[in-house]
Structure formats: structure tokens, C-alpha cells
Input
Amino acid sequence: MTRRKLSLAAAVVTATALTLTACSGGEAPAADTSKISIMAPFLEAQPPSADGAVQQKLEELTGKDIGITWTPNASYEDKMNITLASSEIPQVMVVQSKSPGFVKNAEAGAFWDLTDKLDEYPNLKTTFPEVEQNASINGKVYGVFRARNPIRAAVMFRQDWLDKLGLKAPETTEDLYKVAKAFTEQDPDGNGQDDTWGITIPKWGALGSNSPYDIIEEWYGAGNRWTEKDGKLIPSFETEEFLEANRFVKKMVDERLINPDFATFDGTKWNEPFFNGKGGIIVDVDSRVSVLINLFKQANPNDFENKVGFVGNLKGPDGELNAHPTDGYSGFLAVPKTSVRTEAELKNVLEFLNTMNGKEVAALLNNGIEGVNFTVEDGKAATIKPETAEGKAVSTDIKSYAQLGTNVTGNNFYPVKQASDYEQQVFDKRVEVMAEDLKSAVYNPAAAFVSPTYVAKGAQLDNIVADARIKYLAGQIDEQGLKDAIKLWKASGGDKVQEEINKLWQDSK
Amino acid sequence: MTTSTVDVKAPEQAPPPAPAPGRRRRFAVHFAHYKWLYLLLLPGVVYFAVFRYAPMYGVSIAFKDYVPFLGVNGSPWVGFQHFQDFFSNPDFGRLLGNTLILAFLNLGIAFPLTIVLALLLNEVRLSILKRTVQTLVYIPHFLSWTIVASLSFLLFALDFGPLFLFINSVLGTDIDFLSDPAWFRPLIVLQEIWKNTGWGTIIFLAALATVDQDQYEAAIIDGAGRFRRVWHITLPGIRSTIIVMLILAIGQMLNTGFEQIYLMTNALNRSVADVFDTYVYFVGITQGAYSYSTAVGLFKSLVGIVLIFGTNWLAKRFNQSGLF
Output
């Protein structure tokens, strides 16, 4: 008897173990048009709560029961791939980039092809068709892209240092060198010690990641990842301008105008040398201007103006302005086929996304709830001061909800009114400078193209050149070494990538 | 009466009339006899079945072109394609070299140091001192690699790290320890020693406690000094423990420590820093090449198995008891 019980127990345990190990192959939930499930990243310390004021308002405005799976930004890509392999697939997924994982899934048929479908919806028919092309995979649109300002590159510098040394804001790369040299050698903080440098660059080497190196190369005319030469597309690092730009950066490294630990310096501490008066220049996105001003403001609310100066893109040595744009989007909202099975269901989801990008919801996602955390003053959203607990909760939540905004027809929400007149002036100047630079933007001509070889091993290939670039700047290898690395890139599969990109480019014409 | 029935039954069972049912019956008796021991074994079996053996099913994606959307079963088979790609990749030699060099450095330097430290601690007479030192050397083990790496960055930071300043002023050099490829391996081994040597002494100290004290007395009477006693009594006494620990260490050898190396890597030292573990992460997780990175991981495991069997075989050859 006992023996039988025991073997039964063993059988049960084994069976349980088998069930546990078997992949959960459940059924997808039945279509219910009143429910929408979304997977999105959050960049704050905590995801917004599911019963917060913003969520309730969002459900009220869209008339849907919305379930959002908030996933930490740092592990989003892994979670996305795992989710696609599971049975719990949301109806709308934020896809952050055309990563190899996404491309493989899309080409295997995991997502709806929306190429000819978006035009029916007034809020999804984009006013930036070239950005939609950039976000596509070889012309196939797999999602509603999340629009971003294409021009973001700026040079930020310590205005007080510049004034003290009687210098002018840089306009060309040569000016940048002069300012960096003066900041390094002329004791801009006036403490009598040689303890300052010009430009601070953090550990940030990947190719085409809008790093300071990428930006300076573009200013020199090397192009944006790919560039057209003699009727063919070549990677920008194969141009003479690429070498010139890096010679220029190397000269600054050698003269110690750049922080010597640029290869290892932690990017999250990027503002510190600027704020602490060590390194006076940062080349990065213009939104950092506000971050820097805020640092000074927090330290001393009475004296923070005229600490931070900035200019937009710089002219290269030939006097031409080649402004560095991003691809104009930050991922897209894609619709998986496993959870949205029929055209009718797709229509339901797209109608929902159309509502999401309407004026009312856009204002909710980006500004918050009027009367709770902001009021409208001269067409701008002004934060209600003093902040109520309720208003603060809304302001915190929308930092995450903004991730769901696409704004493919331009910004449908209110611009934010800055906290002080000075900050408003700086903000307005930023908008002005960026709009001016947009006219001289040099885009990546191959942004839309996805080459199979690049999907398979592009990142390893690019690492060859990216690491060589840093090694060259640090003096570990000479220019010949850098050229050899570019040859190695070509020999290890880069030639094939180039061939494929050119074919896609020719076909698209 | 009762005993006699049992006696009668037993010989009936013993000669097997037909082999298959008899064996099954004998196993049933055996099982009934040891049922509680089997019950004790059960959690372990279930653990290994669920968490160690079942996931091996996922290894099959090394031979497929895995796409998450298609699932493990739906992805097409590609045979040894990923292995071919890996072996023909220019990275292969570098990865294998870096992994093996780091593994042997750790084994050759950190492992003996553990024994040395255990011997030193064993020779300490003052009990309070011994215990204090033991506790102190265990502490680093409980710090995460992130903290160890942060400490290293602070200590060796270019131009202001205290160790950077001290070493370079003593040697009159200008070495950037954090980005100089020549200093990557020494730093990694030093970190490993600092973090894990103390913890590793626990087993050796336990083994040292079992060495027969009479032998020491006899040796003292014969006039043996401290070193002779260590060499002729202590070390032979813990020899089998050393061998077992060595085989286990070799089995773990290729696990060069993903976190530690990942945190210490930068563009300037990547040529010596890339090992299998970081490569699998870089290619597999950040680029979504799951099949390829599984193939790389599988290859690493194969090398690990070869190393374990090889060491075990060697240990047996030299007349030592092996692990199995």
C-alpha cells in the first residue's frame, strides 16, 4: 500500500516537473475590442501605477480598458524577445530600434506590415514621410514611429569661463579647438592652478550612436554613417574626412584638451566636471543645456544665469555647415500578429492608436491633466506651483506615459513653459538654433536599409572600427593601424554589407 | 510462526524464474526497504531535473536559426552552421586565448594562494587573532563585483586615484592601469585574489583540522622545523582535498566571471578582455543572435568537460584518488 502511494507520489512529482518545464503553450486571449494591451519601457525609478489618475483619464479618453506592461528600459530588448516567444503577447509593442532581434522577428512575420494602412488615419498619416522611411525595414513600415527632433547636436560651454577669457562662442571646429585650448591653458577658473581641460568625453565609442566623435566627423563632412561618393554609398569611416576629423580629435587628446580618461570615464557622471569647473565643454544633445542649467540653479538659485552657454552645430574646416541629425525617431509602436489576428482586429488597434495621437490624448501623455498639474498660459503648459501631491503624481507618471506618444503629425501637445524668464529665453534659443541647423542637416542615406549580413554580424563588425578609433585617439595605434582596422572591417564581412546596402539603395530609387 | 513465513517467502523470491519480472520485483523490495532514503533523494532529483536537465532542451537552438516569434520548435534547423561560423570567425582564436590565459592565471596564482593562506592561518597560535583574520578575509567575498570594480576605478583612476599616483611615483612611470591592455590581466587576477582567496580557505582549514596531531608531536621530537612539518605532514595530509578542489576549480575554470570582466572592459583593453562569457552576452543578448551565442556557450561547456575528465584522469594516473 505504502509502496503504491509512494510510486504515485513520484509519478505526480515527475508529471508536475514536466508541466513546469514544458513551454507554456496556452491559447491567445480571444478578441475583445474594448481591451487593449500594451508593452512599453519606463525610464523612471518605478513604473506608474495601474490605477493612477493618468491611466484613468487615458481609459476615459480612449474608451478602452488599457493594460500596460511597463518594462525597465535597460532590459527592454531582452524582455521584448522573450515576450515574442511566449503566449502572452500584447496588442501593441513599443519597439525601440531596428535591432537584429526585431528585424528577424519582423521578417519571420511576427508583426503587421502597416505600409499602406496608416494613411487612412488622420493622426497616423505622418507629416514626416522621410522619417517613416528611416524607421522602415527596406521600405516596409512595421510600426508607427515615435518622432524625435532630428537636430539635437550642440556644443555646451561654461559661459562664465568664456566671458572671463574674453572669447567668442565657437562657430567652427577651429574655434572649438581654440576655446578648448584656452580653457585648458589659461586658467579659466582663476584659481592659479593648471587643473582644467577643454572638452569632456565619456566612455562612448559605438559607431553611429550620436557620440561626440560621430558628431565631429559629420562636421568635417564625413557623412552620417553612410555617404554617397561616385554614385555609390560608402561607410563614412572610409572617407578622407573621417581621418581628418579623428586627426583633429587626436590633436586635442595629445595636447590634453580632452579629459585623458575619455576611454573609461563613466557617462552618468558627464555633467560633473562641467559643473565642478574641471572640463568646460560638452558636445552632446541640446537638451543637456537644461540639465546643466538646473544643476547650477539647484546649487545657487540666485546665481545660475550665464553659467551655461551653447551653440548648435559647428562649421567644418572647409567653412561648410554639415549639421548632424539623428534618424528622427526613437523606435516605433508595432502590432504583433499573434495577438491581433484579423484585419478587423488590426483596424480596432489602429483606431485606438489614432485616438492616442489626437490632441486630447497627446496633451495627457505629455503635459498631464489640466488643472491638476498644469494650466495653459499663452498656449504653453505651466506647471502649477506649489505642487500638490496629486499634481506631483501626475507629473511623475507622464514621464513614463510619454513613451506611448508617437507625434507623427508634429507635436499635438502644449510646449512646456519654462520655470523662469531666463530659462524660457534659453529654451526659445534652443528651438531657434535647432530649426536653423535643420536646413543644413546631412542625413544617413541608408537609414531605411537593413542588410542581412549587417543583421547577422554588424555590431561585431562595427566594433572593429569603433575600438580602433578609440585606440588611435589614445595613441595605442597609429593612423595606419586605424586604416588597417577599416580594411579588416571590409574583409570580415563589411564588403558584403556595403554591397547589400548599395543594392537596396539602387532598388529604392 | 511469523519468522518462518518470512523465511519461506524469501528463498522463493531469490531465484528468478524469468529475468524481467524478477528483477523488477527485486527492485521493488529494494525500493521498499530504502523508501525513506529515496524520499530524501527526491527533492535533489527534482531540482536537477527541472533546473539543470530540462533547460538543456534549449540547447537545441544552437543547431537552429532561432527566431523568438517562431519558437524553439518552429525555428528551422541549420545543423552545425553556427559552429562553423564561430570557428571561422577571426574572433575565435582571440576569445579562446583570452579565456584560457585568464583561466590559467586564476588557477595558477589564485588557487595556490588559497592553500598558502589556509596554511598560514593554520599556523597562527593565538586563537583570537586567527578568528579575526579569518573573518576579515571572508568579507570581500560578500561584496558584489560591481563594488569591486567601482573600488578599482577609484583607486586606479587616471591622475587622481591614490594607487595610480602611488605606484607611478614609486616607479616613475605613467601607467594607466584601467585602459592599458598589458595591465588588464594582472588587475583581474588581483581582484580575484582580493575577493575570493579568503573564502576559499574554508574547506582547506576544515581539512587541516583533520590532520593527526600525534604526527606533529612525533616530528617535533625528531627535530623537524615548521617548514618541514608543513611539507611532510600538513600538505600530504590534505593532499586529497587539494586534488578534489583542483578538479572542481578546473571544471569552473572557463567561467571567467562575466560581471567582473564586463565591468572592467573598455574600448582600449577589449583586445585582451573579450572572453567567451562576455562575447555570448554581447552577441546573444544585445544583438539577439541567440542561436549563435548558444553554440558558443555549448562549445565552452565542451571544453570544460574535457578539462574535468582530463584532470581526473591525470589525478588517477598519478596514483591519487580522482573525483569519480
Observations:
- Chain B touches chain A at residues 28, 31-32, 35, 38-39, 42, 46, 49-50, 54-55, 57, 67-72, 90-91, 153, 157-159, 176, 178-179, 181, 266-268, 270-271, 282-283, 285-290 (CB under 8 Å).
- The radius of gyration of chain B is 27 Å.
